[in-house]
Amino acid sequence: MAKPVSWKPREMHDVIPISLLVICRTLNLWLFKCQYIQLICIKRIFGGGMRLEWIDDILAVAEHGSFQAACEKRNVSQPAFSRRIRQIELALGVALFDRSARPARLSAHVNDQLDRMRELSAGLRDLTGALRDTEGTRRRRIVIASQHAIAATSTPEIIGRFADLDIDTRLRSANRDDCLAQIMTRRADIAFIHDVAGAQEIPGSDFLEIVQIGTEALIPVYASDHLQALNQSYEKGELPVIAYPADVFLGQVQRRFVFPRLTRLGRVRPRLETALTLAALEFARTGFAVAWIPEPLARAEIAGGRLVNLSSTLPSITMTLIAARLNDTVSPLAGDVWERIRALAQDV
């Protein structure tokens, strides 16, 4: 993160977060991905000026497409809303919007942080509600962190296994590292994530209780009505693919277990990079490129004939679906849920 030119540490509490940033970056600790750690550092560096309403202002523009629509959603006048946006940019020392476009749109580097901002906004609201809950009305609730693809496929069935316990569940969808960070910082009770044999050890596994609750295949899929175009690319010695970023779990799986096995087919051309499996699935539907998708996510489309499973010619990978929690969890409610999950694991 670039420092404003005029920045100077005023007090010891201004220096500590920067030291934390340096140490975490140097050691490449996954804990640095924790959104709360980053927010604390940002608030210290900028004198505590980062506010929840600023995050919500940025998200409003992202979700509604323009300043005008966003200010209506936020129930403020457009001049006042524009002043607030400029105040955020002044505090951060960077432009957040491309104002050359009409309407103005978020800069690319801000778009990259939207998922993290949504998680921060939701987490801070959850914390506020918990602190106000003097009567304990929220106690019969657990928080589950789930990888995006699992949240859309297996998680509903798993949650159904403990529906009779009369428990409210908050589901947070995130990438694998962020799911683990939520467990380690006790912002979630249980995480559902993928793992692959031979992949890097799960960060923080010494502190976690882990059970296997199923398996899923990561399969290559493509639009059935565009196979001719794919064959033409293959004849030219090129395979168009949708890649996941190298810093997310599925991206690491692709680079370690999938792409090396594709060299016999010619040049692998990553036509698109996205961290979202649902986005990769949509692009595969259009015939844009081959996407590797968890099989349950593509099952209905394959059965309906819209997508083709290319596992007979391209590599597929078996992934383990696991549940994880801190091994010192003391919540009786989370314990009851965990026992149901363990029972599910015994059926595997």
Features:
alpha/beta; 348 residues; transcription cis-regulatory region binding; D-Maltodextrin-Binding Protein, domain 2; Arc Repressor Mutant, subunit A; disordered N terminus; transcription regulation; 11 strands; 2 domains; seven-stranded mixed sheet; two-stranded antiparallel sheet; 15 helices; LysR_subst-bd; HTH lysR-type domain-containing protein
Explain how this protein is built.
The chain has 348 residues and is of the alpha/beta class. The chain has 2 domains: 12-114, Winged helix-like DNA-binding domain superfamily/Winged helix DNA-binding domain (Arc Repressor Mutant, subunit A), CATH 1.10.10.10; 140-348, D-Maltodextrin-Binding Protein, domain 2 (3-Layer(aba) Sandwich). It is 45% helix and 20% strand. It is built from 15 helices and 11 strands. The protein has helices at residues 12-27, 35-45, 52-64, 67-74, 78-92, 108-111, 114-132, 148-151, 155-160, 176-184, 227-235, 249-258, 277-285, 295-303, 332-346, and strands at residues 97-98, 105-106, 141-147, 168-174, 190-195, 208-223, 238-243, 267-273, 291-294, 307-309, 317-326. Strands 3, 4, 5, 6, 9, 10 and 11 form a 7-stranded mixed beta sheet that branches. It has a two-stranded antiparallel sheet with strand order 1-2. Helix 1 (12-27) crosses helix 2 and helix 3 crosses helix 7 (114-132). The protein starts with 11 loop residues before the first helix and ends with a helix. The model is unreliable at 1-48 (pLDDT under 50). Belongs to the LysR transcriptional regulatory family. It holds the Pfam family LysR_substrate. GO terms for molecular function: DNA-binding transcription factor activity; transcription cis-regulatory region binding.
